[in-house]
Amino acid sequence: ADLSSSALSAATPGTILRDASVKGLHAKVTVTAKGFFLYFRTKAGVERRPKLGDFPQMTVAQARQVAKEMLLAVAKGHDPVASRQAERAAPTVSEVIDQYERDYAGKRKRGMETVRILRNHLERVHGGDKVATIEHEHLLALHRSLKKTPVLANRVVSHASKLFNLCERPWKYRTPAQGNPCRGVERYPEKKRKRYMTPDEARAVARALDANKAKYPAAVAYVYLLILVGARRGEIWDARWDWLDVNV
């Protein structure tokens, strides 16, 4: 029988309705659903039968439109089913941050600081989203949400840009056509923040540290490390014993 809304509404379980206008489009009627499907072969000869949707949530006209778009992609040499499968299998933002921490953070000078910033901001907003679905507008909105802390806003985008570069190459979670969603996000102007303690300030800090070393030995040692090695707070806070070369 021909595929139409009236025919589908009246169809009983076990019926298959084939569309006269779009080759390969058909509807299968079961006890629980009336679903639209499309049969085609890719240019490589692979048979595909993807489900497009269920009637009446999807109309016959909508099913025809989706089928036409899918067949057009096939004619151009693409495999829309494989693309769907790849998108479903693609990792989330949280998962690629995990991968960065596992494979890269320990090899880079400020790797753990990068991870901390990504988790506190990019992951907080988009952690559950597929990395392939993140677009320029998402990073632009995230950057603007941090406008009261412009330096941090800029760092979030810079670190996210590094992450998305890896997602394109070598990880191949995003295609070159998708590009880096951070590209084109205009950074906020930054004021130079480098300043050295005056002698009076240094003496005051030393007195405060000395007065608290018995009660807060770890915190005092932490501050002394920051002063002596010139590292960032996060680098000392996230440091591990296996990073220390006692033979140096």
Descriptors for this entry?
248 residues; alpha+beta; four-stranded antiparallel beta sheet; two-stranded antiparallel sheet; 8% strand; elongated
* Widest beta sheet: strand line-up: 1-2-3-6
Large-scale geometry? elongated
In N-to-C order, the SSE pattern is: HEEEEEEHHHHHHHHH
Mean pLDDT: 91
Residue share in helix = 40-55%
Task: Count the beta strands.
Answer: 6
Percent in strands? 5-15%
- Structural class of the secondary structure composition? alpha+beta
Q: Can you tell me the residue ranges where pLDDT is under 50 for at least 5 consecutive residues? A: none
Euclidean distance between termini CA atoms: 82 Å
Described by strand count, sense and barrel closure, the largest sheet is: 4 strands, antiparallel
Radius of gyration: 28 Å
- The number of helical elements comes to 10
Q: What does this molecule look like?
A:
With 248 residues, this protein is α+β, with helices and mostly antiparallel strands. It has 10 helices and 6 strands, in the order H-E-E-E-E-E-E-H-H-H-H-H-H-H-H-H. The strands form 2 sheets. Strands 1-2-3-6 form a 4-stranded antiparallel β-sheet, covered by helices on one side. Strands 4-5 form a two-stranded antiparallel sheet. Strand 2 (25-29) and strand 3 (34-38) form a beta hairpin. The radius of gyration is 28 Å and the shape is elongated. The mean pLDDT is 91.
